Amino acid sequence: MSVSKFTNNGPVPGTLRPGDTAEVVVSGCNSGAPGGITTSSAFVGGSAPLLPSADRPTLQGFPTIAAKSGTFAVHAQCPDSSAGATTTVTVG
Fold first, then answer.
1. Counted domains in the chain
2. How far apart are CA 68 and CA 49, in angstroms?
3. How far is residue 35 CA from its own chain's centroid?
4. Which of 36, 43, 79, 83 has the fewest CB within 10 Å, making it most exposed?
5. pTM (predicted TM-score)
């Protein structure tokens, strides 16, 4: 699972800031069905849908970073099982 800052030129490395759009990519799910991010304080609204990517076998979503600083856990759920992925996101 990767979480990057998303820009007009695609994802870029670096610190995530409140109001940024993140690109969240999860690979390894067995189904092309939508999945989702379970509640995380890193994102506005706490959760976000993950949709199958048209150009690669992944789930992809673009949540907005919340106006909070800190390090937050992010868990994404695969649609076909209880399997998923967990990572941390630092908002500066």
1. 1
2. 21
3. 11
4. 83
5. 0.85
